[in-house]
Amino acid sequence: MKKLSTLLCAAITMACISLVFTSCKDDDEPETRKPEINTVTFDGVSHLILSAGIDKDELDDGNYQIVLYISEEKTKGVRLDASALHHDGKTTDLTQKEPKHDGWYWSVEFYYPEKIIDTYGKPGTPYPVFQTGTFYIKRTGFGAEFEIRLKDGKVKGKEGFGDGKEHTISINFKGMLDLDDY
Fold this sequence. Notes:
Blueprint: H1 2-23, E1 39-42, E2 45-48, E3 51-55, H2 56-60, E4 63-69, E5 77-83, H3 84-87, E6 90-93, E7 107-111, E8 115-120, E9 132-139, E10 145-158, E11 161-176, E12 178-180
Parallel strand pairs: 3-12
Antiparallel strand pairs: 1-2, 1-11, 3-4, 4-5, 5-7, 6-9, 7-8, 9-10, 10-11
């Protein structure tokens, strides 16, 4: 019985060691985790979106003026502007100003609580655009249900349009937006 107990302990120990070695990740492997839903990742730090809203009057007019709050006091977050006609269900290149058109152009602002990023896709404006990044927005149902993704955003603000430093930002949101006057 003592030999059986010793063998059993040895087998359990070897199984645990084997599990530890096979679960270790090679530092050279790229990260393949999916981004968490309802988060804003700014400069590598992930923030949970605590509340989100859209301007009801603008939504009724086919425009999306959305705010994603990452603080309870609603002083930190992202404001996104887009239009149903030009952006809904489409991936937008944030490195370019949009061609001239009627209606709203894309815009991304990040404040923490002061404005750190201030970009705008309207041609002829002095606002900066991103160095890298895409933006996808889709109204997924009736009312104010949306899917929003900003991927691989890298931007450097300039004087008067943010803090003038280089920043990264990603957004992954899916859900209902509160209807309000933002």
